[in-house]
Amino acid sequence: MNGRKTVRALTMILAAVGVAGCSLMPDYHRPDMPKTETFKEDGLWRLSRPADKQPRGDWWVHYHDPELDVLESKLNQDNLVIQEALARYDAATAFLTEENAQLYPEINLTGNELTNRQSVNRPHRGQGQPNIYGNTALGGGFIYEIDFWGAIRSAIASAEASAAASKADIESARLSLEAMLATSYIKLRGLDAELGLLRFSIDAYDKELQMMQRRHDQGTVSGLDVARSEALLEQTRGQLARVTGTRALYEHALAVLVGQVPSQFSLAEDAQWTTKIVYPLIPSAIPSTVLQRRPDIAAAERRVAAANAEIGVARAAFYPTISLAALGGFQNTGYGPLLSTPNSFWSLGPLAFFNIFDAGARQAVVDQASAKTRVATAAYKNTVLNAFREVEDSLSQLHNLSEQDQHELLAVKAARHTYDLAINRYREGAVSYLEVIDAENVRLATERSELNVGTARLQASVDLIRAIGGSW
Q1: Distance between CA atoms of residues 472 and 468, nearest Å
Q2: Cβ atoms within 10 A of the Cβ of 379, count?
Q3: CA-to-CA distance for 201 and 195, rounded, in angstroms?
Q4: Please, are residues 446 and 408 in contact by the beta-carbon 8 Å criterion?
Q5: Of 237, 182, 176, 170, the residue nearest 204 (C-alpha)
Q6: What is the pLDDT of residue 389?
Q7: Neighbours of 268 (CB within 10 A)
Q8: Partners of 346 in the beta sheet?
Q9: Which residues contact 76 (CB under 8 A, 6 or more apart)?
Q10: Residue 358, SS3 per DSSP
Q11: Domain that residue 334 falls in
Q12: What is the pLDDT of residue 45?
């Protein structure tokens, strides 16, 4: 009869397990995201329907620089920040596996072979019991927590969302580092062009100084002109040293980005780089919803989902924890055969635990989970707003730098013409050499300014590509 009751109880429990589908996790709805049909800085940009799972591609190839391609490839292989993000993702997926394991029974095997001595004065000791006796046992069992209230499933949902967020973090780190490398590389090459301009100017100023010295020796010019020419030369040499030092800093930064020791990394100067680089043709029909492709936005949204699932875990603590346990095996006093029917034992049945009073501890956990969800939601919306700002910033920079570059080119043309007029007037004796010095300073300053604006335009294009989530 007892056996029938046991079978009946097991049948009811297994049926309950089969129909258990209750979940206390709130239904998840993606937070509303700010939307816009156009960007303020460029009315040609319109909406489309991209997604963060679309491949971003090797966007840097649009610059058509083989050396940049090599550096970006090294970054993706050897950068330590990316490796750190990959390790975090591995930890997140391992935690997800751990949570999934709770859906299955825990099976174990136990055994012991002990010699025990009991006290002669042990309470309720039976007559004739030996002081020293053996205890040999071998058995196995399992325990299975029935997920009546969806706590395990909510924990799994949270772990899945967290793993997805960690994966998006990898792509976010990758995209940011790729953009940082490209920006640093462009700045370094811009400095190369500036170094080339300064070296050309120094060579010209040095020849000019030698000419002035000869004319001074001939008595045709004063020592003041020689001193002014020498001051211009040394001032320009000082500028060359400063730019050289700045270039070294960018070279060191590139070394770390590609996972190398700065002392073992170098890039040869290329003063003609600005004349060879191709400006990327970013299509105008890229919309505001292209921001959905940004991995940082995807990560923020997944963290909202993970926090929402944690509410279900917290709420389940208000209900009983119900488990099914079974244990069986053989046991004797250490003498005679162990594996025999008289030595067998077993136990089977449900286990339940219900906390009646906890002074508000469980409600506090629910409140914490709800608050974390609100925090994650606010962080998600803030990430979206910042993404809009970054696109607007990049478009504004590109527009204004393009206009500035046009004016800088006109300024360079005017400065060169001014210098030509000044040197001709000086040769005719119409002006002093001070006017030539001023014209030379203005010419060099405008040429350097135009180079810096061109570099800034290329860097702004990288910022825009990063802001829209990568390649198009």
Answers
A1: 9
A2: 16
A3: 10
A4: yes
A5: 237
A6: 87
A7: 6
A8: 328
A9: 82, 174, 178
A10: coil
A11: 2-116+133-467
A12: 33
Q: What is the pLDDT of residues 36-83, one digit of tens each?
A: 555 554 433 333 333 555 556 788 999 999 999 999 999 988 888 888
Residue 213 burial (CB < 10 Å; 0-12/13-18/19+)? middle
In a domain, 186, yes or no: yes
CATH of the domain at 16: 1.20.1600.10
Q: Judge whether 125 lies within some domain.
A: no
The residue type found at 214 is R
Dihedral (CA of 18, 19, 23, 24) sign: negative
Q: Indicate the number of domains in the chain.
A: 1
Question: What pLDDT is attached to residue 129?
Answer: 83
User: d(Cα 191, Cα 267) in Å, to the nearest integer?
Assistant: 12
DSSP string, 430-461: SS-HHHHHHHHHHHHHHHHHHHHHHHHHHHHH
d(CA 311, CA 151): 9
Q: Is residue 123 part of a domain?
A: no
In a domain? residue 439: yes
Q: The tokens 């020796």 sit on which residue?
A: 217
- Go through 423-446 and write b for each residue having 16 or more CB atoms within 10 A of its CB, e for each that does not: beebeeeebebebbbebbebbbeb
Tokens encoding 425: 């007037």
What is the pTM (predicted TM-score) of this model? 0.78
